[in-house]
Specification:
heterodimer, A: 107 residues, mainly beta, seven-stranded mixed sheet, 11 strands, 0% helix, 50% strand, B: 123 residues, four-stranded antiparallel sheet
C-alpha cells in the first residue's frame, strides 16, 4: 500500500497566519490527491481534489499544490473557522490511504 | 440536496457480526461508486471498501478483506457493509461516503459523507 505522511502532526497558529501542511507519498501518485477538513464530532469535508482543484463552495484562501510524491495544503490567512484537523488522501490505486492528520490549533 | 444516513451500529462481541446500512438521497445512486471509511476513537481516517455504481466491482482494505462485504441496492437507494468475525480493532465510527463519480481512476475521493455510525467491539 502507498503510505501517506503528513507534517507537522500539530500546528499552532494565530488568526491571519499563513499556514502550510505537507503530505508525502511513499511512491508517485501523480496528482491523485485530495485534502479534507474535519472538526470534532463531524464528518470530514472535501476541500481540494486532484492536488490543486478547489471544491465548489470552499473559500479561496485554501489552495493545494504538488505532484508525484510531495504535496502541500496552504491556508493563506487563517480564520477562526479553520481550526480543525486536516487529512490528505491518495487515490492513485484501488487501495486508498489517508495521511495521519494535522491538527491546526490556536496559538 | 445529497444526504447519506448510516444506521446499524452498536455494541457487538468479538467474533460477532453486524450489518451497517446507508440510506442515500438527493442523487442517482447507480451513477456513483460508494465507499465506507472508518475512524477509530481519537485516530485518523481509514478507507475500508468501495463498490462500483452497478455493484459489479468491489475493493477492500487488507485489514478487512475476507471479513467484510460491501453491497448495494440501487432500487432502494441503499448501501450496506456486512461485517463478520469482528475484532476489537474494528471499533470505530463508520462513515458512508459518496465518490465523485464511477469507479474509474481519478474519482477515488469523497465529496459527501454521512454523519457516521459507531461500532464497538467488546466483550
Amino acid at each position: 500500500d502507498i503510505q501517506m505522511t503528513q507534517s507537522p502532526s500539530t500546528l499552532s497558529a494565530s488568526e491571519g497566519d499563513r499556514v502550510t501542511i505537507t503530505c508525502r507519498a511513499s511512491q508517485s501518485i501523480s496528482s491523485w490527491l485530495a485534502w479534507y477538513q474535519q472538526k470534532p464530532g463531524k464528518a470530514p469535508k472535501l476541500l481540494i481534489y486532484k492536488a490543486s482543484s478547489l471544491e465548489s463552495g470552499v473559500p479561496s484562501r485554501f489552495s493545494g499544490s504538488g505532484s508525484g510524491t510531495e504535496f502541500t495544503l496552504t491556508i493563506s490567512s487563517l480564520q477562526p473557522d479553520d481550526f480543525a484537523t486536516y487529512y490528505c488522501q491518495q487515490y492513485n490505486s484501488y487501495s486508498w490511504t489517508f495521511g495521519q492528520g494535522t491538527k491546526v490549533e490556536i496559538k | 440536496e445529497v444526504q447519506l444516513l448510516e444506521s446499524g451500529g452498536g455494541l457487538v462481541q468479538p467474533g460477532g457480526s453486524l450489518r451497517l446500512s446507508c440510506a442515500a438521497s438527493g442523487f442517482t445512486l447507480s451513477s456513483f461508486a460508494m465507499s465506507w471509511v472508518r475512524q477509530a476513537p481519537g485516530k485518523g481516517l481509514e478507507w475500508v471498501s468501495v463498490i462500483s455504481g452497478s455493484g459489479g466491482s468491489t475493493y477492500y482494505a487488507d485489514s478487512v478483506k475476507g471479513r467484510f462485504t460491501i453491497s448495494r441496492d440501487n432500487s432502494k437507494n441503499m448501501l450496506y457493509l456486512q461485517m463478520n468475525s469482528l475484532k476489537a480493532e474494528d471499533t470505530a465510527v463508520y462513515y458512508c461516503a459518496k465518490n465523485r463519480g464511477q469507479l474509474v481512476p481519478g474519482w477515488g475521493y469523497f465529496d459527501y459523507w454521512g454523519q457516521g455510525s459507531l461500532v464497538t467491539v467488546s466483550s
